[in-house]
Design a protein that fits this description.
alpha/beta; Small_GTP-bd; 7 helices; binds magnesium ion; GTP binding; seven-stranded mixed beta sheet; prenylation; disordered C terminus; binds guanosine-5'-triphosphate; Rossmann fold; globular; 216 residues; 34% helix; disordered N terminus; cell membrane
Length: 216
């Protein structure tokens, strides 16, 4: 699809609403990627996420206005019984690892991919494997080719990015939504259902810092 993607302002008129999840080990940069995408600015030394947080952003892609609700979760916590509702109804999942920490890459296979398989209610949900922190190239512990191979094995899209320099951060979300737009079943449930769920889950997940919602 050769459409252009641009960021659009603060309004509630949209054609589709998509739920996107960020998952991966603690410290890989999930919150940094999200903040870099949402606010177009650099954020240093974020604290680990507590519980679950989500943010919204409107995008214009190929003449359609898309509302993305992006869920960010703590890599170091498991949420027991609420975990399935975190995954429920997701249109896209961003699986993040840190290219300088090999265990974050192997954990995607051992822990996170299994969790997606178990809890993701949507069989056609689009996944993208993202290797973050490419700005630290001299500390690299996972090659680009290894990332590509894992993505192929799990039928995921693939990108390497840096939340610090913002290289490829917009592209991760753009590639994901362009692919979601190609799947008719994802478009069918891409509107009111997700909006209702977001409100419900916001209440379920109220945490000391969680449940914040901002629309940029
Ligand atoms: N050099 C570099 N540092 C990064 C990058 N992305 C994140 N960091 C740093 O890595 C640390 C962890 O980033 P977070 O965004 O909090 O990681 P997280 O995946 O949200 O971690 P949890 O919330 O604990 O699951 C922070 O100190 C960030 O500043 C990057 O692309 N390059
Ligand atoms: Mg975080």
């Amino acid at each position: 699809m050769g459409s252009s993607t641009k960021l659009v302002g603060n309004n509630n008129n949209y054609d589709y609403s998509f739920k996107i999840l960020l998952i991966g080990d603690s410290g890989v940069g999930k919150s940094s990627i999200l903040l870099s995408f949402i606010s177009n600015s650099l954020h240093h030394d974020l604290s680990p996420t507590i519980g679950v947080d989500f943010k919204m952003k409107l995008l214009s892609v190929g003449g359609k206005i898309l509302k993305l609700t992006i869920w960010d979760t703590a890599g170091q916590e498991r949420f027991g019984t609420v975990i399935s509702s975190y995954y429920r109804g997701a249109h896209g999942i961003i699986l993040v690892y840190d290219v300088t920490r090999r265990e974050t890459f192997t954990n995607l296979l051992n822990i996170w991919a299994k969790e997606v398989e178990l809890y993701s209610s949507n069989p056609e949900c689009i996944k993208i494997l993202v290797g973050n922190k490419v700005d630290k190239d001299k500390d690299r512990a996972v090659t680009r080719d290894e990332g590509i191979a894992l993505a192929q094995e799990h039928k995921c899209l693939f990108l390497e990015c840096s939340a610090k320099t913002r290289e490829n951060v917009q592209q991760c979300f753009k590639d994901l939504v362009l692919k979601i737009l190609e799947v008719p079943s994802l478009l069918e449930n891409g509107s009111s259902v997700v909006k209702r769920q977001a409100m419900k889950q916001k209440q379920e997940y109220q945490s000391p810092r969680g449940g914040r919602c901002c629309l940029h």
